[in-house]
Design goal:
The chain contains 4 helices and 30 strands. By secondary structure, the protein is mostly beta strands. The radius of gyration is 23 Å and the shape is elongated. Belongs to the glycosyl hydrolase 28 family.
Amino acid sequence: MANFKIFFFSSCILLLMFIIPSCLSYNVVSFGARGDGRTDSTAPFLRAWMSACSSTRPSNVYVPRGTYVIRPVTFTGPCRSRIEFRIDGTIVAPTDYNVIGGSSFWILFYKVSRLSVYGGTIDARGHSFWSCRRSGHSCPSGARSITFLWCNNVLLSGLKSLNSQIMNMAIDFSSHVRVEKVRIRAPSGSPNTDGIHVENSRDVTITDSIIQTGDDCISIGPGSMNMWIQKIGCGPGHGISIGSLANSLNEAGVQNITVANSVFTKTQNGVRVKSWARPSDGYARTLMFRNLVMRNVGYPILVDQNYCPDNNCPHQNSGVKVSEVTYKNIKGTSSTQEAIKLDCSKTNPCSGITLQDIKLSFVDYRLKRPALTYCKNAHGTHRGTVNPNSCF
């Protein structure tokens, strides 16, 4: 009887192999791409994409080993069936930063559903662009390296993004997106090189990734809902931030965000909620930060509702309502004496803040000063041991 079951199961697998059509593969080299690091392969990439996207069967765009130069490119949907974009090689931007710098996007997936992007490396070669910005000369606005705009049911796995001009990865107006096992790297002094930016999107998971940038490792903008972030190695960079919010009066809120089981190393901030001090009907609520390790991090726990990085401050009160925020099991060292800083709005005080099982010490090898908690217009409770002492 057991042998019959095994035979029946094996026969079913063989039958399915003949019944289910195989995935069609479209190799960019077959469409004229050259992996020599010099030839412009934008048009062959687009031709391969259009062929795959128009297929009625599940299809695959394949980028074999080699180095492929592409200009700004938009891979447009909707596609007729499930599509996979598999990269075994390296995709690089042209050496002249103006070629992609004048576009908001370098690699854009637009209105694509049931998409999987696997492996490989993309390198935007941002060094000369950053030099231009630091020099104060007239520079283009810069391009995001890879963006998913109005996309649904997306998996991004194993990609390495290097030297983005500005944001490395962006998810906007999209849903059911999973980002896993990515590696993002840009120098700590590179301006505005966020690792992953999410805005106006829901049901986004980011996990098992290492992010080293000159700005936020992950930034979460207005309209973001139902996000799960875990197992992130963040640093250098500015930490993981919700905001900046209050960019406009009529702004979508942020809610149901979890950041868990992650390590921050020498970042400018830890987990941060930031909003401009001006009117807004936005909000940030139901936020959970738990099981986090801080290693020599500035402001490991920070709510900043007087955000003003360029000294051109609104000098008003933030209209963003921050509520139901939990910080649980956060341990390590702070490079600022204020390890916990809750600087909330005078007209919209923070409420429902919970501090639980916090152990943060101040790294000051000269004076050995204790870590401090700063609270302004913040209301909440504490549970367990909280060090530095809770202000609630």
